[in-house]
Design a protein that fits this description.
Layout (H helix, E strand, L loop, with lengths): L1 E9 L5 E6 L6 E5 L11 H5 L5 E7 L4 E11 L5 E3 L13 E7 L10 E2 L10 E5 L10 E8 L6 E7 L2 E9 L7 E9 L13 E5 L4 E3 L10 E4 L11 E3 L4 E2 L7 E3 L7 E15 L2 E13 L8 E9 L26
Parallel strand pairs: 12-22
Antiparallel strand pairs: 1-22, 2-3, 2-11, 4-5, 4-7, 5-6, 7-10, 8-9, 9-14, 10-11, 12-18, 12-19, 13-16, 13-17, 13-20, 14-15, 20-21
Pfam family, one: Mfa_like_1
Organism: Bacteroides oleiciplenus YIT 12058
InterPro entries: Mfa-like_1 (IPR025049), Mfa-like_1_N (IPR042278)
Length: 337
């Protein structure tokens, strides 16, 4: 049988910091980070990567768009630094600006599932995220710094994670080198087969109000495959499982899901796990459905979770009843005369 446990850890809220230089000059940016790089997570090095960067807008105290949707990217040419074009200047009248930013940014010819169609809204700057395939998921981060003027000095923008991060791990209940166990399939069951599903494929994040807008049409309808046999650019391959708990996606590989409200919903996420057990020259395949309840302990914004699948191996054992099967006394049989 297979069972799942859940562990929780809070994500750091100060992984990426950028500053806009003050003064009667063009608004400039610098980005720095005080944490170690972690693969598959949006951090300093991820944003600094080629054709990535972050998006930023600025709105005046009067509710007028002052800086349109601008992609700021790192350039190592000439004077290295974070650059954008055309230059945007602080208001000459000394009025304040409010900055709203997100990362990673969709590059030219590169879609990361982040739409900034509503990013230039002067009342609720927002981005819409559409989840990509499991291997191409995006760790969306965002931030705001409101009512800033050039006299305030550098404008500090501390990015925070706005999704839920899932690590998927598995282990067997016993250590048996002669038995091979593999997870050959894993999927999240969509709303077509799970009417209680809170697995959203798409939703809008309001940066100003730090809130997600969830709509029923944003839910994933069909089942969403995470692990499948064979080689694919979209899904993960089958994973060997041992008695030591380890990621079944690979080191530093995660799922990033859209968070939901704190109210408890049974079967908010249902997963179907398929695994094989090979021993004694025989392979058996088993499929189990596992359910998770949303609430304060699951699918919250900016929180990291680890789902630990335990595959129980019950060895077949035998006993022999040594009573009641002794030979009876000999029966004499004489040949015919």
């Amino acid at each position: 049988m297979a069972m799942a446990t859940l562990t929780i850890a809070g994500c750091s809220q100060n992984e990426i910091v950028e500053t806009a230089q003050p003064g009667n000059e063009a608004v400039g940016f610098s980005v720095y980070s005080g944490v170690h790089t972690r693969a598959a997570v949006t951090d300093y090095n991820a944003i600094k990567g080629e054709n990535v960067g972050f998006g930023v807008v600025a709105i005046t105290s009067g509710g007028v768009l002052h800086m349109k949707d601008t992609n700021v990217k790192y350039s190592s040419e000439e004077t290295p630094g974070w650059k954008y074009s055309p230059a945007i200047y602080w208001p000459n009248d000394g009025s304040s600006l409010s900055f709203y930013a997100f990362a990673p940014y969709n590059g030219a010819g590169v879609s990361r599932g982040v739409s900034s169609a509503d990013f230039e809204s002067t009342t609720a700057p927002s981005v819409t995220l559409t989840l990509q395939t499991p291997k191409k998921m995006v760790d969306l981060v965002a931030t705001k710094a409101e009512s800033k003027t050039s006299e305030d000095g550098a404008v500090s923008l501390k990015f925070a994670h706005v999704l839920s991060r899932l690590a998927l791990k598995a282990h067997t209940s016993v250590d048996d080198a002669s038995t091979e166990v593999k997870v050959t399939g894993l999927k999240i069951i969509g709303k077509t087969a799970n009417s209680s599903s809170l697995f959203y494929k798409s939703a809008k994040y309001d940066i100003k109000n730090d809130s997600w807008t969830l709509a029923d049409e944003g839910k994933q309808g069909d089942d969403w495959t995470i692990i499948a046999s064979g080689v694919s650019d979209d899904t993960y391959p089958a994973a060997t499982v041992t008695n030591t708990s380890a990621s079944i996606l690979g080191n530093d590989e995660y799922l990033f899901l859209i968070p939901v409200s704190s109210s408890d919903v049974t079967d908010a996420i249902k997963m179907e796990l398929t695994y094989t057990v090979t021993t004694g020259g025989i392979t058996t395949s088993t499929t189990k459905t596992l359910s998770f309840t949303s609430g304060s302990s699951f699918l919250q914004k900016g929180t990291a979770y680890a789902i630990n699948f335990e595959i129980t191996l019950n060895a077949i054992s035998f006993t022999v009843d040594e009573t009641g099967w002794d030979w009876s006394a000999d029966t004499t049989v004489n040949p015919a005369p």
